[in-house]
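Because discrete structure vocabularies remain unfamiliar, we first show an illustrative case, written as a sequence plus integers encoding its fold.
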Amino acid sequence: MEIPLQITNRSIKLSNALESEIRKRAEKLDKFYSRITRCKVVVESPHRHSHQGKRYNVQIVMTVPGAELVVKRNPHEDLYVAIRDSFNAARRQLEDYSKRQRGDVKQHEETPVAVISALFSDKGYGFITTSDNHDIYFHRNSVLNSDFDHLEPGMKVRYTEGEGEKGPQATTVTVL
């Protein structure tokens, strides 16, 4: 880290052991992702709940090139658990951020669009024609949101293709 770790405590006095635990976990984050320029940890005990007792919040703010990552977990009654959970979440955020920086994030393909070309309502199936003029069979159970009875030839749909017993088959059909 370019700027030393900053630990702030509110409504609570941190023991040397707790402060050491925070520093140890922050060092692990810095080893995991060496481009952290600043890390600020805020430990607080905002108020006493009459039914739940004392709860602790641990917030971590990390500055990395091009972004600021903030971790704020749900309060916990054990301060060590609150610290552990917050630093685990911080590590996951750093993992996700570094994957996006490297371009490793999986891009989902857009589901293809087709047009209903034939419909046999009484038998519970139909055919859709894809953009490259292939006919694909679909069954009423493949139509999402129970929309089969509202389908008409010429309607545009999105579909997911799978292999059926007699060739290509739409495993899901969604009306646009």
About this structure: The longest strand covers residues 156-164. The first helix runs from residue 16 to 32. The chain has two domains: 6-102, 113-175. The two ends are 50 Å apart (CA to CA).
